[in-house]
């Protein structure tokens, strides 16, 4: 079976995005889903906005998800396992592709039923530090009818089901994408590999 890190990089080089179905082990996916739902139920997730710092605003016509950032210094054991997995991928990426990644940032994301995120790029106009986007899904038994697909816009339009364990990897400053309306709660760990 091909190495998941190699699959992500090969997909990026061949199609401008990589995806792999087994980025995380099933028990870790279940644990992270539990932590996300626990944060949401305790009111520890907040409505996401668009833009950064002075340009930050909330706009439900553009984006309707709730997020909660993972702090590496206070992350629980399962979140630390996830971050180690990402850092192992970063080490592979830097070693094999000379990517120059120096830091990572990740948050939980929950899209309630009926929410979406309109077409956008993950790079801020005033901050070009985000080099790659990496999304890992936590949804159990996701079906096409549940909506919430990630749509990547490039030479072709690609739709990706947000199935548990699947990771998607693409250039933050190049690939426009959107999240279609979710018809049930949609959960992920979303973040960026940064060169500063």
- Tell me the number of helical segments per DSSP (H or I, 4 or more residues long): 3
Element-level helix/strand string: HEHEEHEEEEEEEE
Radius of gyration: 16 Å
Query: What is the residue-mean pLDDT, rounded to a whole number?
Result: 92
- Give start-end ranges of low-pLDDT stretches: none
Distance between the termini: 34 Å
- Total beta strand runs: 11
Measured by DSSP, the beta-strand proportion falls in 25-35%
Largest sheet: 7 strands, antiparallel
Principal-axes shape call? globular
Question: Structural class, judged by helices and strands?
Answer: alpha+beta
Query: Major sheet: order of its strands?
Result: 1-9-6-11-4-3-2
How much helicity do the residues have?
25-40%
Question: What would you note in describing this structure?
Answer:
With 196 residues, the chain is an alpha+beta fold. The protein is 25% helix and 29% strand. The N and C termini lie far apart (34 Å). The mean pLDDT is 92.
């Amino acid at each position: 079976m091909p190495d998941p890190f190699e699959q992500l990089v090969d997909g990026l080089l061949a199609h401008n995005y990589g995806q792999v179905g087994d980025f995380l082990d099933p028990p870790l996916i279940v644990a992270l889903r539990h932590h996300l739902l626990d944060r949401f139920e305790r009111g520890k997730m907040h409505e996401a906005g668009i833009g950064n710092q002075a340009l930050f605003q909330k706009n439900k016509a553009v984006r309707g998800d709730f997020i909660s950032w993972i702090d590496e210094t206070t992350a629980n054991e399962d979140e630390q396992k996830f971050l180690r997995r990402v850092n192992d991928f970063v080490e592979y990426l830097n070693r094999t592709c000379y990517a120059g990644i120096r830091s990572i940032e990740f948050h939980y994301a929950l899209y309630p039923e009926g929410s979406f995120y309109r077409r956008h790029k993950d790079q801020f106009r005033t901050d070009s530090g985000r080099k790659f986007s990496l999304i890992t899904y936590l949804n159990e038994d996701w079906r096409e009818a549940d909506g919430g697909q990630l749509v990547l816009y490039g030479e072709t339009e690609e739709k990706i089901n947000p199935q548990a364990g699947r990771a998607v990897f693409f250039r933050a400053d190049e690939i426009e994408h959107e999240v279609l309306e979710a018809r049930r709660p949609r959960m992920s760990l979303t973040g960026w590999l940064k060169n500063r």
